[in-house]
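agent> Task received from the user: take the single chain below, predict its 3D structure, and emit structure tokens. No templates, no multimer pairing.
agent> Plan: (1) validate residues, (2) run structure prediction, (3) serialize to tokens, (4) report one or two observations.
agent> Step 1 OK, no nonstandard residues flagged.
tool_call: predict_structure(input=
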Amino acid sequence: MGKDQCVHGEPVSFHHSQFDARDLAGRRGSQRISVCIPARDEEQTVAGVVEPLHRRLTRAGGGVDLVDEIVVVDDGSSDATAARARRAGALVVEAGQAGGGKGQAMSVGAAATSGDIVVFLDADVERFDANFVTGLLGPLLTDPEVLLVKGFYDRPLHGERTGGGRVTELVARPLIALLFPELRHVRQPLAGETAVRRRVLDTVTFDDGYGVELGLLVDAAEAFGLRSVAQVDLGVRVHRNRPLDELRGHATDVLRAALARAGAQLTR
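)
tool_result: status=success, residues=268
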């Protein structure tokens, strides 16, 4: 899929293969680029996310000079997440209040990074590829009007090519279609793979927990217009699929973030 500027006000869509790391490094000029990875108990996968970025996309790792820093925010891990992230080439910072949730970890990471552009990634991805980052950076470094980029992808489940992303399909996308229909074409509104300009982060609020992704998307589109949002096909995302009962909290956070922005009066 190539660039698709839709006439009905849909976000512009790209494919990660459209962007080359060396070309993007030449385009970024003086802009600093940070990668921020919130992580809690992800010792099995965090190094597999950090290492290819450090090796392929940082000068310090011997790769293309595209990424200036990789920061892992350790959200109260009880395993070797922090140690493995450091060995792979990341700076590790603590999230503060242990188990404070993804939103808090992302907020801490944003404050700890110096980038004019911040790329957020999840730490639980298997078979990670640095093309995730070049894909997310591409629209921002080639179009000054783009301020926030969401990734989308196929999400395998139980050996099938699709079926993952149950909270996205059963909660987030129906909510968006009903409450924020201008964003209904965003394929993965809860994607942890998000790139955003610093001035957006300085404007929006980081929700607690797993409502943070939907909140950033809705707030950015409201503050800067739909033209500021783009999405990129990143191919396939393989990660640990959680049991259904563990997703109730995720779904509640997403519901809370959406309904609050729609004006509902909610109790905690």
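agent> Step 4: summary for the user.
The chain has one domain: 12-261.
agent> Done.
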